[in-house]
Amino acid sequence: MTRLKRNDPTMANLSQSEQREMLKMVKRGINRREFMGWMMAAGASASSAGLLFGGMSDAVAATPKMGGRLVMAADQHGPNDTLDPILFTSAADYFRGRAIYGSLTRLTDALGYEPELAEEVLSNDTATEWTFKIRKGVEFHDGKELTADDVLYTMNRHLGKDSVSKAAALVSMVDSWEKVNSHEVKAVLSSPNADLPIALGTFHFKIVQDGATDFSNPVGTGPYKVKEFKPGVRFIGSRFENYYGEGGYLDELEHYGIGDPVARLNAFLAGDVDAMVNLPPKAISQVEAADGKEIWALESGAYINITPRLDVASSSNVHLHKAMQYLQDRQRLVKGVYKGQASLGNDHPIAPAYFDHCPDIPQRELDPEKAKFHFEKSGIGSAAIPVVAAEVAPGAVDQCLFMQREGKKIGMNFDVKKVTTDGYWGSVWLKEPICVAAWNMRPTANIMMTLAFKGDAAWNETRWKNDKFDDLLVSSRGITDPAERKQAYCDLQTMIHEENGMSVPIHRNYVDAAASHVQGRTSVPLNNFGGAEAPVTLWRDS
After folding, report:
1. How far is the first Cα of the chain from the last one, in angstroms, to the nearest whole number?
2. Are 85 and 205 a contacting pair, CB within 8 Å?
3. CATH number of the domain that 494 lies in?
4. Model pLDDT, residue 294
5. CA atoms of 21 and 308, how far apart (whole Å)
6. What is this structure's pTM?
7. Helix (H) and strand (E) counts for the chain?
8. 225 within some domain
9. Mean pLDDT of the chain
């Protein structure tokens, strides 16, 4: 505690240990009258004793409390829910993963990284070799100590042509992982990548135990052990008493999905859940006016989009894609649907929130005349154009309905099929010819484009392949000249904007809601619930 500096000699002479002892009194529940009486008997003035009590009370209020239970409501769940990090797909997966596991590095609010399970991260001069010194004394939930073997096993699951990792593209430049000693490993790269430690702090690179294959009830090094996990139903974590770090304050942390946004809001307002993701924008004022309810919002480069598959005849028409892009009512989405908690999208993923955003690409706007030109070129005529949509994020369905409305004006016949969010990522996304999606922001532009646009990426939604794009994406990781780097990233974003075919009408903020007693909220702008970093730090003040 910072020592108080007052004219009162008693206050000026308080040692750090004395202040800590008095802080313990306040924590134990001593009231203001008792505290002031004790201090004044020791020679302090009433004013200085009151100031000290107030300062210590504030410190107690901000100190995490052990115990209690929180219930967190996601917006999606389904049979594909998993606790295997390499298969994570949804924000719900990411949140559960952060509760159970740790990573070599963790991401900061500013989208840099800091060591976590790796207490030191070192690189050679060319960023082609990275050494990770593993923290000693870290336990898995079954009591086994974390070692280099666990890290090697985890990382090798992302490598090779047979890997099923959803994030394999982020480490495709890693030739091998080598064991230096029992608590040190080295990654050897085929090409420079200064972003590797940042990539390893993202959702899919949680460290699992050497040899793990059954993820129905896995052990990790995170603050919570798996007490219950039923895919499509719920997850309950119980505190891991031997967690190595600060955090894991709750007795239990429950997490499950409520797909309908109105039902999710009602459950939150009624107190059935302590926090909820994706607060409907029109309900922001309602939550702000409610006693004991607060907005948990973060500015971000996350986005919603409409994605046509280029490998399916019915959705591969280039003029169809251009017509769809010019029919996006972007201004109405930002101002009307999102109530200002969003910014204009420009049919590529890299918003101004990214360091490498390119401001030079002309903004695409709602333009019925250009849309009509491309529609007539498409030769589709009056045939129905199926678009499958679910409210995977606020505005995901509205973007389709607005496009449908504008399309009718020029003779386009969009058939918007609204489905539930339950199981959406397993049964609709990457399967239907045209559907909606919602993407979380990633810590760097290169990571974002590698995950979603590289030709061999598992999540390349449109199946767009461009060798020039792929080559530049890889080479740009080693560019240090600022002007050359800027040009490279502008070229990458321009290629997506002009050729990929998807519509990105807006970039959205994360707008969640939490009860006032939900403390320890995080602010990493990559996902709901503070970048899915909150499980470590959440505590209940009640």
Report:
1. 24
2. yes
3. 3.10.105.10
4. 97
5. 64
6. 0.79
7. 19, 19
8. no
9. 91
* 24 assigned to some structural domain: yes
* Beta strand residue intervals within 75-198, DSSP E: 105-107, 113-115, 118-123, 129-134, 174-181, 184-189
CB 495 within 8 A of CB 361: no
Q: Which helix (H) or strand (E) holds 76?
A: none
- 465 part of a folded domain: yes
- The structure tokens 């000249």 sit at 481
Sign of CA dihedral 139, 142, 146, 151: negative
SS3 helix, strand, coil % of the chain, rounded to 5? 35, 20, 45
**DSSP annotation string for 14-33:** --HHHHHHHHHHHHHT--HH
- Tens of pLDDT along 209-237? 999 999 999 999 999 999 999 999 999 99
CA 207 to chain centre: 18
Q: 463-482 pLDDT, tens per residue? A: 999 999 999 999 999 888 89
- Burial category of 59 from C-beta neighbours within 10 Å (exposed 0-12, middle 13-18, buried 19 and up): middle
Evaluate whether residue 32 is within a structural domain. yes
- Pair 65, 27: CB distance under 8 Å: no
- Token readout for 504 is 């990105």
* Dist CA 389 CA 398 (whole Å): 9
Task: Give residues with Cβ within 8 angstroms of 327, minimum separation 6.
Answer: 366, 368, 371, 402, 403, 406, 407, 412
CA distance 178 to 221: 22
Closest CA to 511 of 256, 350, 248, 286: 286
The DSSP bridge pattern shows strands 69-74 and 275-276 to be parallel
What pLDDT score does 78 carry?
A: 87
Q: Let me know how long the chain is.
A: 542
Q: What pLDDT is stored for residue 523 in this prediction? A: 94
Work out how many domains the chain is built from and give that number: 2
Alpha helices in 16-129 (DSSP H): 16-28, 32-41, 46-62, 91-100
Tell me the pLDDT band of 97, cut-offs 50, 70 and 90: very high
In this model, does residue 10 exceed pLDDT 50? no
Non-local (6+) Cβ contacts of 381 within 8 A are none
Residue 434, token pair as written in the block: 């045209």
Place of tokens 């049919």: 347
Per-residue pLDDT at 2 exceeds 50: no
Structural domain including 32 reads 9-62
C-alpha 401/C-alpha 46 separation (Å) is 66
DSSP 8-class letter at 262:
H
Axis crossing angle, helix 445-452 with helix 482-495, rounded to the nearest 10: 30
How high is the pLDDT of residue 456? 93
- Residue in the structure block whose two tokens are 């090798």: 156
Those residues whose C-beta lies under 8 Å from the C-beta of residue 264, and which sit 6 or more positions away, are 73, 75, 258, 273, 276, 277, 278
Contact 491, 472 (CB under 8 A): yes
CA distance 410 to 372: 6
SS (H, E, C) 208-230: CCCCCCCCCCCCCCCCEEEEEEE
How many Å apart are CA 81 and CA 228, to the nearest integer? 13
Structure tokens at 536: 């470590």
Strands 275-276 and 413-418, sheet pairing: unpaired
Task: Please answer whether residues 107 and 202 qualify as being in contact, where contact means their C-beta atoms are separated by less than 8 angstroms.
Answer: yes
